[in-house]
Amino acid sequence: MTQAGRQGSPRSGSGRNLPQRNTSGGNAGGGSRGGAAKRSTGFGGDRPHRAPKPREERFVDPDEAGARQGRGATDKPAEPSSRKPSARKPGAKKAPGTPGAPKAKPRTAVPGAAASRAFGSERFGQNLGPLRKPSRRKGPGRDVPQSKLHDADGIRLQKVMASAGVASRRVCEEMIAEGRVEVDGQVVTELGVRVDPKTAVIHVDGLRIQLDENLVYMVFNKPKGVVSTMEDPEGRPCISDFLKNTKNKGERLFHVGRLDVATEGLLLLTNDGELANRLTHPSYEVPKTYLVQVRGPFPHGIGAQLKAGVELEDGLASVDSFRLVDSTPGHVLIEVVLHSGKNRIVRRMFDAVGFPVQRLVRVKVGPIGLGDQRQGSIRNLGKQEIGHLLASVGL
Fold first, then answer.
1. H or E stretch at 331
2. In the chain, N or C terminus with fewer CB closer than 10 Å?
3. Angstrom distance (rounded) from CA 187 to CA 180
4. Closest Cα to residue 3, out of 28, 23, 32, 27?
5. In whole angstroms, what is the distance from residue 328 CA to residue 243 CA?
């Protein structure tokens, strides 16, 4: 083989199987055609051909582009930016809000801009389900201008919201601009509105903001053997004994509803009389969830009987829902939900169907649940929980 033939032969393994071309001519024209043939089959010279990398689009600042157009087309193009494309960032392809997704940058206060939930940074109240829309009090009609809500001696609405812990002042401005804030039943979209925190009723996404710092809302996980009173003349353990180690010691609080001595679980404590009255009033039908332990086995049909209603000495009583949670030899754990507040109603209903209660725990009142709260402990409700609780009774 001639020197020209050795230089033109491919070195890759795949090229050896190709048919040998005639190298006896060796003229310039033949060499040119041979080079074109090699390029068309994916080979070039002494090394294999590599496809060029796709050209990355450079980030263009709109202000910089406008300045270049003002200088004229003769200016040199700007150097390529060393900034990596956003698609290469970890989690860039993940949906917003999912674990590992990049955090969205705050936007300006324009309608439609994304903003955080009210009290979104709180520990409690993250998973309380959909908010029940409160019944609106009589207030300004829709045709009343927002200037009627303006109080010249008041405080800017976004500042009031930020002070109440809704979000940062900038995010609160976004919420106002998006029409998510109501004052006295009127949607407010102007950032300059001032309100009186002592008299204004403010809702964000239907969630009532409690601006009165003197009102207290607490959850007590009552143990068995504790009397549902603040003071007991017989000297038995009562609620006030568990308030001694809290910062609300000496605060005049009252409990919402009662639990008998043998029943454990959730008791709400507050000094908000209007809320307490509505939570206990039968017309608001606030649901209460209980875990009931009875002896097993539990025959089929008893749950349907409890839902249909059983006759008690003070009338017909029924549960809203019935669910079998667990079953072990000799014991059955049942979850029931009912809105009746009659005395010892759960125990009397299970007695009526022939299954006396062995242990009874109230785990939820309205949207507020015990979760993993330690028995005998007391904690303050979060702002989200307060808003859901007020909304559940139309406040």
1. strand 331-338
2. N
3. 7
4. 23
5. 37
